């Protein structure tokens, strides 16, 4: 399942709780575009801001509305005990894979992060994807630790937080990672602005925030990558530069995607869990202008 | 209440849950030493690793065993909705004050952090202490944001994460903060190694991890500070340098304090919530040697 486009939708939240209808509308776009997999409750899916009960419900809705597309559920939490409960919930809901970030509060060391993955791998019965996102988890993996964790039974993919900005360096980086990992462990690029570089450097798939809202747009990239058309991959990403620039301006993708979902009429204009705040009116207008200019729909 | 020594005990955790007897043993040391306040469920108290139910129980135990000493309870969580529930729980348990850190996952902006404090201040009926600890929350306050938040009704103290390492710069820093804050808002230094510098620069109190396990030792510093004996404050902290060095070596105080509590026979040798791991045997021996050399007890 871990190839092509893995689309990470928002989980829209209103003051009264999760907006289930909005979430289902987002899922419908992903199934219509026939994305290769759905990553529900990722960082952009606000997993960390939701209760265990809300996460269980969203996992069940994702599987129910996925029309057979495999669903990966993020089970991140600071406490290992909570991660284990979330893993049970996600598997009971029908998740095809589990996405596990080393969410930290106290700074974690390598043995602690390895211990987390070892504990979860021991009990999980579906594949695990290592989620590396230092911008939110504040933990930095080494290739050596990737290797230790990827050798655990069930660990089948690594979601890397981007690649070097030069194509030749990105290629060297991915080749070095492959050498450190057991065969069969897939490498997925994330950080949407790095998708083209990562795919052209040989990543197996794109764990995509853009694809969670604009799946056709994102799929054009992974399709071009599957066809080996590297120039087209580069060109398609370059065209999206105004969107990547909005991510940079607003400290990540989540506030931009939440604004975009509201602009498209898929969710309330304010669909972020507090303490996160929606973009200002002026910033929302800028998002709307980029959507129009890039003909995102 | 927010003067002198505010002692922050560990919350010992074993595989079967919170070690309530161990926690009560730690509290007994604080009441015997007549600390000025108790900060339960701080960072070293592992608040973020515990469930809402566990936190409610610890808050109740802290108040019950505090022998009338005011208890401040940390209500930090990533989601504002959860923080509000924790605030209710803590107040119902009898907390005299609430400690509120801007725990972050997505990077927060100033308006989002202000919104969090505004929301909590609106509903709380006991004083709130702003908890600034960028090492764990990954949010950096500006003096301007301190000022906005400290102007909210109920915000009565700021727990700062340390001061400049030069006495004259520390003094200038504290004076500048005072100028940015409403009168009557206390400033408490934390980061144990900075306690002497902070107290000598005019901080009103020490939010102390050391005091959570070694209250007599910590109280000697705050007592000397209250007597205006700056040289003695500096001397007492300098004597504890081997302890501060252990904190630095182990990425913070929690693993060192957990080891020390085990060495003193107050808790199990392994009393940290996973994914945190206890120190190695060799590192524990080093902690034991420092405890013996400094005659900590």
Automatic annotation (TrEMBL), chains A, B:
Keyword ATP-binding: no
UniProt-annotated catalytic positions: 131, 159
Pfam family, one: DHDPS
Superkingdom: Bacteria
Record-linked CDD domains: DHDPS-like
GO terms, molecular function: 4-hydroxy-tetrahydrodipicolinate synthase activity
Keyword entries, A-Z: Lyase
Amino acids binding pyruvate: 44
Cellular component, GO annotation: cytosol
Keyword Lyase assigned: yes
Family listed: Belongs to the DapA family.
Protein name, as recorded: Dihydrodipicolinate synthase family protein
Species in which this protein is naturally found: Candidatus Pantoea deserta
């Amino acid at each position: 399942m871990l190839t092509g486009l893995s689309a990470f939708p928002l989980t829209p939240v209103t003051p009264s709780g999760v907006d289930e209808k909005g979430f289902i509308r987002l899922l419908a776009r992903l199934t219509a575009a026939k994305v290769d997999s759905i990553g529900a409750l990722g960082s952009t899916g606000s997993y960390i801001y939701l209760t265990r009960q809300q996460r269980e419900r969203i996992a069940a809705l994702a599987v129910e509305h996925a029309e057979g597309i495999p669903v990966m559920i993020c089970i991140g939490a600071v406490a290992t005990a909570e991660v284990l409960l979330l893993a049970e919930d996600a598997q009971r809901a029908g998740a095809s894979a589990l996405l596990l970030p080393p969410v930290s509060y106290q700074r974690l060391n390598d043995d602690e992060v390895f211990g987390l993955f070892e504990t979860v791998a021991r009990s999980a019965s579906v594949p695990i994807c290592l989620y590396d996102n230092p911008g939110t988890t504040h933990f930095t993996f080494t290739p050596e630790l990737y290797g230790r964790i990827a050798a655990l039974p069930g660990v089948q993919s690594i979601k890397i937080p981007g690649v070097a900005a030069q194509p030749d360096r990105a290629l060297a980086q991915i080749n070095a990672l492959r050498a450190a990992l057991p065969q069969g462990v897939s490498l997925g690029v994330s950080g949407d602005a790095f998708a083209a570089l990562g795919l052209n450097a040989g990543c197996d798939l794109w764990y995509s925030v853009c694809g969670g809202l604009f799946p056709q747009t994102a799929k054009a990239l992974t399709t071009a990558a599957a066809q080996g058309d590297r120039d087209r991959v580069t060109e398609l990403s370059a065209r999206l530069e105004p969107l990547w620039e909005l991510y940079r301006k607003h400290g990540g993708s989540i506030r931009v995607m939440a604004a975009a979902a509201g602009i498209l009429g898929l969710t309330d204009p304010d669909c972020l869990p507090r303490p996160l705040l929606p973009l200002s009116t002026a910033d929302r207008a800028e998002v709307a202008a980029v959507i129009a200019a890039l003909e995102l729909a």
